[in-house]
Write a structure and sequence with these properties.
By secondary structure, the protein is of the alpha/beta class. It contains eight helices and 15 strands. The chain is globular and about 45 Å long. It starts with a helix and ends in a 7-residue tail after the last strand.
Length: 282
């Protein structure tokens, strides 16, 4: 048995450490990527000689987030076969396999039984990578006192993303649907901190975080913390191909414990790889 699974999770308002928990959303079909990855779950698509999901797992482990819950669905057995209980990466992995497609919010709700009793937990997409300091992000969430905090990234071309609009206090005031217009914008980086109370707002059955949950919780307080490090989304064949070019940088970002964004990393979004701005999800 993985020794990390044997420890009793601690409740309370504690900084991120080994007993903090991250929920990874890895159950989607990934239909846009299937032409190039036809028989593998999208998070297991190979980048270099590693699965994309391994970079996310390594990033969490390097920063002391070692209790993971993987919300699986499509080809769930392949993910469990590859990662097992997580001991190879010095993390502890539990699995929450949805009985039918539940969407991103439904998958989080279904995984409730796997979560420790801590007041907050991370939620992350398994098909995107955002370089960030998890401890700083969790601290931001607790200081602002909202139900949800979202890590956002400014990109030069937000055409295939919905954008996040915030006020001067970093509170999210609107989620704008994607328009296809090539323009800069703040986009959802696919990494969140949830207060456990969020679970009460998710209905049983299929539901989407972005479409069903987030808009209805704006009045309860959703905050956004802008990030400036590497951002990669492998949702399309073009982006997946470009991710191969960034394999070495991706690995360094995953295992680094230094301040994210300090080495001018690229951003992979849509049609272009753009450098980090100097000012600074199927």
């Amino acid at each position: 048995m993985n020794p990390l699974l044997a420890g009793k999770p601690k409740a309370g308002n504690q900084p991120a450490r080994e007993d903090a928990c991250a929920v990874l959303l890895v159950g989607g079909i990934g239909s846009r990527l299937r032409p190039v990855v036809p028989s593998t779950p999208k998070p297991l698509a190979r980048v270099g000689n590693k699965s994309f999901l391994e970079f996310v797992v390594r990033q969490l482990g390097a920063q002391g987030i070692r209790r993971l819950v993987m919300c699986t669905g499509y080809l769930a057995g392949q993910i469990e076969d590859e990662f097992g209980d997580g001991h190879e990466w010095d993390v502890a992995i539990a699995y929450s396999k949805e009985p039918y497609p539940l969407g991103t919010a439904g998958a989080v709700k279904f995984a409730e039984r796997c979560l420790p009793l801590a007041s907050d937990f991370l939620v992350m997409n398994g098909d995107s990578f955002l370089e960030l300091d998890f401890r700083r992000f969790i601290r931001f969430h607790r200081e602002h006192g909202g139900l949800i905090s979202i890590a956002v990234r400014k990109v030069e071309n937000a055409a295939r993303y919905g954008t996040v609009q915030v006020d001067t206090a970093n509170r999210v005031i609107r989620f704008a649907e994607k328009t296809g217009t090539q323009a800069p914008g703040l986009v959802n980086g696919g990494v969140y901190v949830f207060n456990r109370a969020v679970l009460r707002h998710i209905p049983e059955g299929p539901a989407s975080l972005e479409k069903d949950l987030f808009p209805g919780l704006l009045r309860h307080g959703i905050y956004a913390l802008e990030q400036h490090g590497m951002f990669i989304d492998i949702g399309t064949p073009d982006d997946y191909a470009r991710a191969q070019e960034l394999c070495d940088r991706l690995y360094r970002a995953a295992v680094s414990r230094s301040r994210p964004g300090s080495h001018e990393p690229p951003v992979l979004t849509g049609r272009a790889i753009t450098p980090k701005l100097p000012e600074d999800p199927d």
